[in-house]
Amino acid sequence: MSDTHSPGLHPSRPRSWWGWGWADDHPDDAECAALGALLPGTLAKPLPVPRVADLRIGPPAVRPPASLARLVTEDPAERAAHAMGKAYRDVIRALRGRPGRLPDLVARPARDQDVADLLDWAGGRGVAVVPYGGGSSVTGGVEYRGDAHRAVLSLDLTGLDRVLEVDTAGRAARIQAGILGPALEAGLRPHGLTLRHFPQSFAFSTLGGWLATRAGGHYATGRTRIDDFVQSLRVVTPAGTAESWRLPASGAGPSPDRLFLGSEGALGVITEAWMRLAERPRHRASAAVSFRRFADGLEAVRAVAQSDLAPANCRLLDAGEAALSGAARDGAAVLVLGFESATGPVEARLAAAVELAREHHGVPAEDSRGPGGPGGDGPDAVGAWRSAFLRMPYLRDGLARMGAVVETFETAATWDRLPGLVEDVRAATAAAAREATGHPATVNCRLTHVYPDGAAPYFTVLAAGRPGEEVAVWDHIKSAATETLHRHRATVTHHHAVGRDHRPGYDRQRPEPFALALRAAKDALDPHGILNPGVLVGP
Amino acid sequence: MSDTHSPGLHPSRPRSWWGWGWADDHPDDAECAALGALLPGTLAKPLPVPRVADLRIGPPAVRPPASLARLVTEDPAERAAHAMGKAYRDVIRALRGRPGRLPDLVARPARDQDVADLLDWAGGRGVAVVPYGGGSSVTGGVEYRGDAHRAVLSLDLTGLDRVLEVDTAGRAARIQAGILGPALEAGLRPHGLTLRHFPQSFAFSTLGGWLATRAGGHYATGRTRIDDFVQSLRVVTPAGTAESWRLPASGAGPSPDRLFLGSEGALGVITEAWMRLAERPRHRASAAVSFRRFADGLEAVRAVAQSDLAPANCRLLDAGEAALSGAARDGAAVLVLGFESATGPVEARLAAAVELAREHHGVPAEDSRGPGGPGGDGPDAVGAWRSAFLRMPYLRDGLARMGAVVETFETAATWDRLPGLVEDVRAATAAAAREATGHPATVNCRLTHVYPDGAAPYFTVLAAGRPGEEVAVWDHIKSAATETLHRHRATVTHHHAVGRDHRPGYDRQRPEPFALALRAAKDALDPHGILNPGVLVGP
């Protein structure tokens, strides 16, 4: 029995079963202690790295028939690794030895027909099926809660990991849904193409996961959400396989693809998609602009978002976020701007955007120009932010080991509501954290995605925990945040999906007739109610 | 009893009850005869303009309760005007005195609650409700077929015709669904804003109609489809009113709005929407480029669509279409390019696009530059095309009066399928026309919308009719076209919607599990099956 599992591109490199990413990238005990010292009220020494053996995992409640046995494992390490996603809530539950209900079995289909066969079997036996891609859900999207099903199967799709077909002239590719980000880009690179979708979880999430959760990418403006890059989908449902036609556009009824995008495994299992691609960018330029007041930064970002400059990157960090990431240490908010193009220089667009920022009291950083953007990196504000961005989830897990409460959540709202929303969320979450822990909390904010009509603020909460009660502390904070979002009619999630954690907010947000329609659609496609029970609809 | 009705902006100007647009814009008998002379096999003199009195309309099968009486009329002229849309098929049926089943009543709600009350009443009595905006459907979307319902109510939404609220900073407006295009733009103009959605039917179609049919606008690239401009929707369904939140983006489950967009009145009645707007463009430039070979034009258009130049207009006309519209008379295909911006000059982008076209053997027209685009007009190829574009539906009706068969249809496909598709559709429709009439037919093609991964070809068929059998002739031609589209897996409609005319193609195109889901959603929202029966789902 091993404490690691190794899917995807690096079969030799161990993934952490309980925390983010690569096991060997995790902070060691000394680094954890140093992180903990930055926050008041953390533990004296880190919680030990949890071991699968300590979970005392019993035998599965069901075993697969012989015809499916080759696809299925009951290995305890696999079952533990597939028990939850990677939210703070999940990490701390693993650290405290109290993970959610473990799946009885983990299946790795090798082709679409395997998925259909597994659904058939599970449907007939009342076995819940939880689709699992890279397992990076931060909203309880890949676990099972409750006891309404006699057994749980985690359907790990990472065996469906190939780029099957590339249409170079039409810039599209047929790609299996279980492919992880790096393998997907590696498969497209020889064709000079890219999906250009780089969420923070890129290395540890799959195309199918992005599609099922309507993921937002790294890019900050324009068509950043995965939805817009879908040409067609193949979805295996208990009621048959849905395959939409490859079309650049169609006006034939409500879009079939848009029903499955965001369906989080509750309506079917996405096994394949034709995705729209782009030429790889050859021109890049980036800059950082600082603002004394976050509110000025908001106005600058609105001006840029409403221009036709179309930056690839347009991230506004508040003072705390800028300090945390090393983008600025002088109490200023920082706007990170990045432009890119496959066809021509972008310096003029960058200059125009900087000029717009200047009109709103922005001060361009002297040393901020550089080969930034998603491909670049450097010793400047832009590069500092990017490095911190990718390291962040590991640091979160290090802080979790110190008993701290560290988590993020995101939303989106129209411009008119943004300034008040950001202030209210800050105040409500900080107050809830102090109430629950007796210690002050840090709440930082950045805008991750901006639109002509609004933006998506992303909040990071850093607080002391209450030893052994970290989940309750976080739930208390999150509940205050959700209430505040609801009061402002800001979405419960911009790109983290609903999963199980966001159900309280989601159930109040979606129009009730739409909920009726969704439930009816689910009953039609999943008559035995086995598909990812508890997300989106149902108890 | 009057033969005209006058909704919308020009209460004093009469709309035609049987044909396109304004009654006083219709060609007179002499012009009809001249048009007919252009085609072999047409009638010697035009069919008379049909009169409502000749339809001998009986009393309605139901009468509304007193509480709703103020909203409802049984005036025969209104019932005749609301009997059908404006397809060739509809026009010729009216000319031949055989319109579809007339609605028994026409209702004009003044507020959302009226819509809910009317649906309540109709649901309890088995009265079919056919939502009706501008009535410009060309796919049988606003008529009733069959006899499964005891009566039919046409729900004319043009009384809900106001811009209710404008968020200037966030560039959005709350607009009632029954507003016609010109009134909508007139309401936004004082704020310096525009929806920038100009379908050919602009003057005679409504926001709600655009939303319910996922309309494509005048603009040729990027976000041209109405879907992308929706911030939130308000939809009255028999199961309650669905109102989504105003959000720039959300990842909370499948998009509620996307289920109602394209639902064609079968799931609910869209009464209001918050729409994303744009600043009015101040800079425009356009050009025409001609190509000896249509295939070269296709390659040029693909290159432009895959660049980041983002023209507002990028329409490729084949030789026949160019000749018909006066854009060229030398047998060349013509590419009409237009750029616009609210923020800066667009000449450089135009020049770059023309250069791309030149690389694919395009020859820029010497005199083609001018203040073109949707706002401009002029004595050049660009302006000629635009004038012809707006006049086209009137000429169609003139030709219909000469017993000709004149109709358009559109599709979309990926680039790899386009050249073969266009050739096959041309050949199949021309052959079917000859077969049905004994005369040669003209089949022209233009690309109306282009995407990085494909384009939308739009076909115009001009053929002789067979006196009295025009509908059968057209159905024969259309059936051949639909078969050809299906063989190429090209969508049955890019932006004309499904209605009733496209059901044969649509039923084979949509994935069967999606059809199951859609039927289930319809049953949940419309338990009495009264909403626009026959479109999208059901018999």
UniProtKB/TrEMBL annotation, chains A, B:
Source species, domain of life: Bacteria
Region (Disordered): 360-380
Basic and acidic residues bias locations: 360-369
InterPro entries, alphabetized: Alkyl-DHAP_Synthase, FAD-bd_oxidored_4_C, FAD-bd_PCMH, FAD-bd_PCMH-like_sf, FAD-bd_PCMH_sub1, FAD-bd_PCMH_sub2, FAD-linked_Oxase-like_C, Oxid_FAD_bind_N
Cited PROSITE patterns: FAD_PCMH
Domain FAD-binding PCMH-type: 99-280
Keywords: FAD, Flavoprotein, Oxidoreductase
A Pfam family recorded for this sequence: FAD_binding_4
PANTHER family noted in UniProt: ALKYLDIHYDROXYACETONEPHOSPHATE SYNTHASE, PEROXISOMAL
Family that this chain belongs to: Belongs to the FAD-binding oxidoreductase/transferase type 4 family.
Name listed for the protein in its UniProt record: FAD-binding oxidoreductase
